[in-house]
Amino acid sequence: MEENWAPEEGAGQGLAQRLHQEGLAGPLRWLENCLRRAAGDREEDGVSHPVPLVPLTEENEDAMEDQRFRTLLRQLGLRPPSSEQESFWRIPAALTPQQLRRAAASIAHRGPDPSEAPPKCPQ
């Protein structure tokens, strides 16, 4: 994949929704926050550096091992560790703040999440 490749609008949306339903809502929120933070930093600093995605929880670590989660990362334009020295996936420097925000928006959860439904009132 080329360094200047950019994800399409809404990339990863369908896969993200499936992963939400399969219990990966936490790691998806973490990824969304990482993308938004990187976008904000790039706007503030005016500089782009590759940003490693460092999973600090076991749940996020497990997600990073999940083949479908990795497919989603690729669809969003993120890149896998490129050498023995790198152990983390990275947000490439080439992605603009706008592209990062679009990627974050495309994986943000839409629709009802059964685990977050308000408790039903007895009739």
From TrEMBL:
Molecular-function GO terms, alphabetical: DNA binding
Listed GO CC annotations: replication fork protection complex
Chain intervals for the UniProt region annotation (Disordered): 40-63, 101-123
InterPro entries for this protein: Timeless, TIMELESS_C
BP term (GO), one: DNA replication checkpoint signaling
Highest taxon above the source species: Eukaryota
A matching Pfam family: TIMELESS_C
Residues annotated as domain Timeless C-terminal: 16-101
Family note: Belongs to the timeless family.
Record-given protein name: TIM protein
Organism: Formicarius rufipectus
Record lineage: Eukaryota, Metazoa, Chordata, Craniata, Vertebrata
Gene field: Timeless_0
